[in-house]
Amino acid sequence: MSASQTLMPFWMEIADRAVDDQARQHANEKALAALVEQYATTLYRVAFSVLRNPSDAEDAVQEAFLRVLRHRHSLDEVRDHRVWLIRIVWNIVLDRKRRAKTRPETDDVDELARVLPADGLSAEQRAAAAQHHARVLACVDRLPAKERQVLILSAFEELSSVEIAAVLGITESSVRSRLFRARNLMAQLLEHPRSLR
Q1: For residue 157, which of 140, 143, 142 has the smallest C-alpha distance?
Q2: Cα–Cα distance, 2 to 5 (Å, whole number)
Q3: Taking every pair of C-alpha atoms in the chain, what is the biggest distance, in angstroms?
Q4: Residues 5 and 12: beta-carbon distance below 8 Å
Q5: Which of 44-48, 100-104, 161-165, 171-175 shows the lowest mean pLDDT across its residues?
Q6: Which domains are delineated in the chain?
């Protein structure tokens, strides 16, 4: 057997591995693109609900996807991509809030209308809905931090108590008790806007 015949299977095996690696990389890129498309809006809403600034929320979502890109090798190990991504964004926005230690005093009604669309309503109805949304968001902002966090994840992002517990790193019973307190406080604030604080 000649040297070229001996080396031929070796080179074919290397070529097959290279093709497999390229196919795997292409599949990973498609999976990442699907994650971005599927969850970008949800992650933006989570980020905006905390940061209240459109460009900061977009930056937080972009940073989250960059982190996912850096750790794409562990993507297969994740059981629930939605909860995992929300937790990443949640941690990013909380870090930014801690660093900034500031909070805007007014809500951008145009941005609110973009995030919470009101299709099929007259201009007067849209204005009333935007005012109501602004009032509800102002009441949410007045809640204590722990209650505000679980309420945002439950009401705005529609996460279950199990998913919220995973995002915040607390027990499910803590989530339920915080939600109970948050809902009671919201009812008081909406009924009597001057209560609490």
Answers
A1: 140
A2: 5
A3: 92
A4: no
A5: 100-104
A6: 15-102 (1.10.1740)
